[in-house]
Amino acid sequence: MVGTSRLQLILAHLALIAGVAIMVLPVYVAFVASTHPGADFLAGRVGLVPGPDLVANYRLALGTGSSTAGIPPVAPMLWNSFVVALLIAAGKIAISILSAFAVCYFRFPLRVAAFWLIFITLMLPVEVRILPTFQVVARLDLLNSYAGLTVPLIASATATFLFRQVFMTIPDELTEAALVDGAGPLHFFWFILLPLSRTNIAALFVILFLYGWNQYLWPLLVTTDASYYTVVMGIRRLVGAAAEADPVWHLVMATAILAMLPPVLVIALMQRLFVRGLTETEK
Fold first, then answer.
1. Where, by residue number, does the polypeptide cross the bilayer (predicted)?
2. Which among 23, 59, 88 is positioned nearest to 255, based on CA atoms?
3. For residue 245, what are the contacts with CB-CB under 8 A and spacing of at least 6?
4. How many helices (H) and strands (E) does the chain have?
């Protein structure tokens, strides 16, 4: 860096290393605890070195859980969380990009009012409308189903607003050129708008996937069947079971580590598009 002395560079790197260590240390301690026998955690014999039961503990957590402690296997919960997060992210993007397209490119009565009605729903998060939403889902017989877990969370005013802002940066000359070439609305949307919005869609997908993955309250309300448990609410149930049963904290820690892996993988795979989608300002 121009104008930066060697000492300043070293101090900057030390500060960054210290920040990373502070962030990573709790995760590393959880990982180490997940590799030791359960009794070692309560006895304080875990330390900072991984134990000998890495494969056995993770195989137990993924495949069978602990029937004596009432702990279900984690693999089905990971699959449920993946399906729910994927459906929520894809549904939010599909609905939001179409509504933003309608608001930006079609001229119809009360168009501005329609946009602000969508925008105003930002004031009504899930927690505020959770009781009437639960009643509707229950009357439609969607409890204990993927539809009940995902459909009430799909509409997104934030994503609609972000796509509207993206579309407003697209030059009018491009729209006029497409009209002159005979492109209809769907052709213009599919072959021009979608490719231009690729990085924004990727960035939004990462954010919405994490949103869907981390849902806790709504799955807790609409699922009583263990086959539809998500991993986040599963961790809470595991903690409750571990506090009452034999020492199974090694399984709780293994579940927490496993629950982190899919979101980290999604971010790692889409990192380049994610950063470009957040920083790109012109089309």
1. 7-31, 82-106, 113-134, 146-167, 188-213, 248-270
2. 59
3. 66, 68, 69, 70, 71
4. 16, 0
The mean per-residue pLDDT over the stretch 224-251 comes to 79
Say which amino acid occupies 89.
A
Distance CA 241, CA 246 (A): 9
Which residues, in sequence order, are bridge partners of residue 66?
71
CB atoms within 10 A of CB 59: 12
Alpha-carbon distance values, 190 to 110, 141, 155, 183, 185 (Å): 26, 35, 21, 10, 9
CA dist 64 and 74 (Å) reads 8
Write the pLDDT tens digit of every residue in 167-202.
888 888 888 888 888 888 888 888 888 888 888 899
Q: Measured on CA atoms in the order 154, 160, 166, 172, is the torsion positive or negative?
A: positive
For residues 30 and 236, the answer to whether their CB atoms sit within 8 Å is no
DSSP lists the bridge partners of residue 71 as 66
How many residues are recorded in the chain?
A: 283
Q: Name the one residue in this structure whose structure tokens are 């006029």.
A: 176
**What is the rounded distance in angstroms from the CA atom of residue 241 to the CA atom of residue 259?**
18
pTM, two decimals, is 0.84
Q: Does residue 8 register a pLDDT over 90? A: no
In this predicted structure, what is the pLDDT of residue 175?
85
Positive or negative, the Cα torsion across 235, 239, 245, 251? Answer: positive
